[in-house]
Structures are given as C-alpha cells and as structure tokens.
Amino acid sequence: MSATSYDYDLFVIGGGSGGVRAARRAAALGKRVAIAEEYRFGGTCVIRGCVPKKLLVYASQFSEAWEDARGYGWQFGEKHFDWPQLIANKDNEIERLERIYHANVEKAGAKVLMSRAVLEGPHEIRLTATDKRVTAETIVLATGGRPNPHPGLPGAEHCITSEEAFHLKRLPQSIVILGGGYIAVEFANIFLGLGVETTLVYRGQEILQGFDDDVRHELHQAMAQKGMSVRCRDTLEKVVQKPDGRLEAHTACGDVLDADEVMLAIGRKANTENLGCETAGVELDKRGAVVVDEYSRTTADNIYAIGDVTHRMQLTPVAIHEAMCLVETLYRNNPTKPDYDTVPTAVFSQPEIGTVGLTEAAAAETYDELEVYKTMFRPMKNTLSGRDGKMMIKLIVDAASRRVVGTHILGPDAGELAQVLGIAVKAGVTKDQFDATMAVHPTASEEIVTMYEPSYRIRGGERIG
Ligand code: FAD
Q: Within a domain: residue 151?
C-alpha cells in the first residue's frame, strides 16, 4: 500500500499531553493527522492530574498564609472554607483549558475524533463511537494511564483514587491515604491544609522513594509536625464500610483507622487493556506498559508509543518531549532519542520539594568523591509569623570535576527553583561557578550560592566528615 492510500499519514490515539503535541507538530508540518480522544482533551495532566492538583494545592496553602498574616499585623474575621465553590471554580478553569487544547489541535489542521480508538491491525484503527474503521501509515499510542485500583484489597470498592478526589461532593473530615509516592504525599498535604484529619499509610521505610534521603526525612518530619499521621512500614489489609457510611481502614500493624474517605494512591497502570495491541503486534511488558525502543518505536514497525503508556518517566514535560522527538524522527529526517538525563522535578507538598540531578545515594555510587553542601534555616518570612518551618538546600558536587551533580531543595517555591537550577545542572555548571554568582539579597535561595565550605565529604561511598 502506498503512503497516500491510507486515510491518514499519522493517527494518534489519546488526546493528552503527549498525543496532542505529536498531532499538532505533525499537522503543522503538513501531515494528514487524526487524533482520537475517548474522554476529554487535555488528558490526565489537564483534566485529572497536574493542573487541578496544583489548584487544590493553592487552595490548601491559604490556611497557613492566613495564620502567618497575623504576625504581619493583619486581623481577619472568622474563616470559612467552601469546598463546593472551590471544586466549581476548578471545574470552570479545567473546561476552559480543555476547550483551548481542542481548538489548538484543530487549528494545527489535525482531525479531531471524539471516540475511543482501538487497533484492528498494524495500520487499521476502529473508532468505537461509530464502529468506523480508518487506516494510517503511522500510529502513535498515547493513551496514558490510570490509578491502580488495588483489586487485591478487600473493600477497595469503597475507596477513592486521585480521580474521585477531584470531585468529592463534600470535604471529608478525615481521610486515610495509602501510598508514599508523590501523588499520595501531595494529596495528603492538600487535605491537611484544608483542615482534614489526615493519615498517610505507606509500606516502605520512608515516603517518596527515589528522592534524596534528607529531603524525604525532613518532609516527613514537617508533615508530622503539622499534625499529619504518617505511618511508614504499614499498609492496609482491608477497608470496611460501617452502617453510617463511614469507613474503617484496617492496617497490617493491627490498627483500625476511622475515616470518611480512604484514598488509594499506589501507582498507575498503563491504558492498554482492550486496545488491540496483540492484534497489531505491539508487545506489552509484565505490567501492561507498551514496550518501546530508544526512538519510541513499539514491536510493530509503524506503531510508536509515547508518554505514560510506556512507563518510562511519568511526567507531562517528558511526554511532550517524547512527542517532539518522535516528530523529529518521523517527519524531519532527524532521528532523535528522548533525553532523560537530569530531569528537574517538583513535589507540591507543603513544604515543597524541588530537585534536579542525582540524589546523594546515587551520586555516591557514581563518583569516587563527593562534596555535600547542606544548609537548613528558617526562611525570613517565618520570623514575624512565628512559623517553625525550615528550608533545606543541598548541593552535591563531584569533587574531581567540581560539577554540581545534584540539587535538592525543601521549602517555599522549591519547584520554581528546580526549574532554574535544572538549566545550570543540565549545563554542567561547576560549584566554583555557583560561588562566582552574585547572591540576590534578601532571598532564601541566596544560600544556593553562599555555601562555601562542604558540610561533609563522601569518598568510596563512605562519609568522611
Ligand atoms: P494522558 O495525559 O493520560 O493522556 C492519555 C489520553 O488518552 C487520555 O485523555 C485518555 O482519555 C485517552 N485515551 C486512553 N485510551 C484511549 C483510547 N483507546 N482511545 C482514545 N483515547 C484514549 N506530571 C507532572 O509533570 N507534574 C505534575 O505535577 C503531575 N501531577 C500529577 C498529578 C496526578 C494526580 C496525576 C494522576 C498525574 C500527574 N502528573 C504530573 C503526570 C502527568 O499527568 C502525566 O505524566 C501526563 O499526563 C502523561 O501524558 P500522556 O499523554 O502520556 O497521557
């Protein structure tokens, strides 16, 4: 079959971060592109992920801001929080963004199909809304993922996941959250900030596996100090609904936690069920994610996969980057592998985490000798407010090359700082260049360029003082 005898040059399944970017870029290059979305344009990030989450984070931060304001002379009347109003305002904003996503795809010249799409063969797709079949020379799977519903947990049907958390009719008075990843931690902080009695249950030694150990420990302490119950090395064995509708979460350690809601945040599953992958020769791994090579090509020659469905690095900017690389590879005669090195990232906990590069543990395995610069201090804003919260800044430096190979920040606006530090660390900036940079005074982040002596060194994996 010649390329022009297919209905489309490119068919994208999934209108989320990765799919939309691939469709827009390819259509802008004059390709005949169609994109199918079964639910709402914008995907997880816009509809039930990053964006609504950040709006709830902002909402939850006002309780502390309100208390802090008193130290600065402000007096307010009685405070009142209206959850339905927040959810309605959030929904309006999400609808606005969804319309923009939809319009941008059409403006780029791609055909938008509001339907579930499944593979019927290597070049054939069926649109389930109309049962129509279309063909394409190249297909991109960008179907993302969804929360793991934890079918093995007795009573899981009574629990919510992040998806329902965005649409609760009422703000619960108490919640138990199972999980220790960033989604669990962020929601725990959102609910705590909104005044909900919050318990986080996580089977691991410490929350936020994969992040720097100091950051994990300090955040845990900060959350506990604010009144959150953080129970590591424990898990839920069953959830029972009581006659009054409330829930009992039974933990492995033998405790029974009473709560209005139990939220499961124990990871995400790739959306590959009944997608027709086997019919088209697309192999899945043990966890159901699409197997791809370094250029995002699946085991079927003309089918590619990008974003969360591949379980590489589940972040919006990464899905977008994979889409851009794919369009370079496919349509600009420029084979481009996605670059996963030194990806800055944030956890919108309270306090926030901003991180880029290697953790101390990973750097100790990679480099013979490290210098670690670490400071913990009370940011100036917390003085008049009387707030206890500390900020931590940690730089990890390869002693031989002097390159800063990791930066980890816990404190206000750490996510914003990670974006800027990401440029420096990616560029391979040395500690001497950090030192040569003039401080911005008075800021909390000036400490990034004013730590002149290492706090300790690590040689051959051992701390040497
Ligand atoms: P998605 O955005 O999930 O899009 C997939 C789309 O495909 C969906 O719209 C789905 O409806 C559609 N679809 C699925 N199957 C089909 C089918 N067969 N036919 C048609 N359409 C189909 N990332 C960050 O970088 N920063 C954050 O702060 C952040 N916060 C998050 C918070 C939460 C609660 C969650 C759940 C995720 C968060 N993420 C965050 C991760 C981020 O949302 C994802 O990495 C990103 O959305 C992945 O994009 P994607 O294109 O791979 O998939």
A: no
pLDDT along the chain (465 residues), means of 10: 84 98 98 98 97 98 95 93 98 98 96 98 98 98 97 98 98 98 98 98 98 98 97 98 97 98 98 98 97 98 98 97 98 98 97 98 98 97 94 98 98 97 98 98 96 97 89
Q: Are residues 32 and 125 in the same domain?
A: yes
**Gap from CA of 12 to ligand 1 centroid (Å):** 14
Which of 229, 281, 269, 68 has the alpha carbon at shortest distance from 149? 269
The pLDDT assigned to 135 comes to 98
Distance from the alpha carbon of residue 430 to the mean position of ligand 1, in angstroms: 36
Among 147, 152, 222, 237, CA closest to 184 = 147
**Is the same domain home to 385 and 447?**
yes
Q: Locate tokens 């609504």: which residue?
A: 52
CB 13 near ligand 1, within 6 Å: yes
Amino acid in the structure at residue 353: I
List the one residue out of 6, 33, 38 whose CA is nearest residue 22: 33
Paired tokens of 323? 């889409």
Query: Is 311 one of the catalytic residues?
Result: no
Task: Measure the CA–CA gap between 401 and 465, rounded to whole angstroms.
Answer: 20
Range(s) of the domain holding residue 189: 156-266
Name the residue type at position 146: R
Q: How many CB atoms lie within 10 A of CB 218?
A: 21
- Output DSSP code: residue 163: H
| Strands 369-377 and 353-357, bridge-based pairing | unpaired
User: Residue 462: CB partners within 8 Å, gap ≥ 6?
Assistant: none
What pLDDT sits at residue 4? 74
Record the tokens describing residue 108, joined without a space: 């780029």
Structural domain count, the chain: 3
Per-residue pLDDT at 1: 60
Ligand 1: which of 11, 21, 45 to mutate, most ligand atoms within 8 Å of CB? 45
DSSP class of residue 193 equals H
Place of tokens 């407010």: 385
Which one-letter amino acid corresponds to residue 369?
Answer: E
